[in-house]
Amino acid sequence: MNAKVKGYILGSIAAASYGMNPLFALPLYKEGMDPDSVLFFRYLFAISILGIMLKARGRSFKLRKQDVLPLIALGCLVAVSSLTLFQSYNYMEAGIASTILFVYPILVAVIMAFVFKEKITLQTILCIFLALSGIALLYKGDDGTTLSLTGIALVVISSLSYAIYIVGVNRPRLKDVATLKITFYVLLFGLSLFLVRVDFGQTLYIVDKWYLWGNLFALAVFPTAISFLCTTQAIQYIGSTPTAILGALEPVTAVFFGVTIFGEQLTPRLCLGIVLIILAVTFIIAGSNINAYLIRFRKLFPRLPLKR
């Protein structure tokens, strides 16, 4: 299996697992748990899992001095993205938040184009358009409902923070650091934000039902440890922009669990949205071949000379 195939598979797994956030977080909210406490336990458990994996593989926990500041910055970005997304669930439905969150592939493409001079290809534009169209169809809002400006602002901040993280983790400075170690320290430094926000444990909400601990553990495993490990590795294989576009699978995950677990209806509108997203993902995986086909198609319709 070549590196690109691995990258696409890992990117898809990362997106699907990150889409599980509402599945495990919303039951905790119903029990009265606040976002800071949820995220504190989510990061704490994920760090423990990754630490055990590092130890089991015989990897060193040591960091070079030049790697510390970049990892602190990435940890802060991830923590801010998680915090603002989870806070937005208090102002709007999780499905709407996931829909708005998906502006991050556009932000990644813009950052890569304007900051790092990466060329935005016709293929990238087509994939983003198809993915956004599909995401728009996945959201079915109530008539006359006005979205909370606070909720929108929180999700936009979350999206921007995540986009900067995706770009930042692909910088050459961290190329020599193992993916597992990067993820461990990103989450470790991110945990410090939630440690401060729960007043070093003074305002920490501790659940009293065993199955809720299962939710917290699942949050640590799927949308945290697995998602960030796969995201970091995928970025190293295929780059920031393709990995971000593969994130279109996140809302598809939400629809899947909504239909299978919460009994939501699978409408033609949802089916069309899923098809558009799958097309976007297929095109980005197809790579440069799509560009070649588009150029050939364009040549079928040559411009006629202007009459004088």
TrEMBL record:
Family: Belongs to the EamA transporter family.
Keyword field: Membrane, Transmembrane, Transmembrane helix
Bilayer-crossing regions: 7-26, 38-56, 68-89, 95-115, 122-139, 145-167, 179-198, 210-231, 243-262, 274-295
Membrane topology summary: Multi-pass membrane protein
Protein name: EamA family transporter
InterPro entries the record matches: AA-Vitamin_Transporters (IPR050638), EamA_dom (IPR000620), EmrE-like (IPR037185)
Organism name: Bacteroides zoogleoformans
Pfam family, one: EamA
Domain EamA: 6-139, 150-285
Subcellular location: Membrane
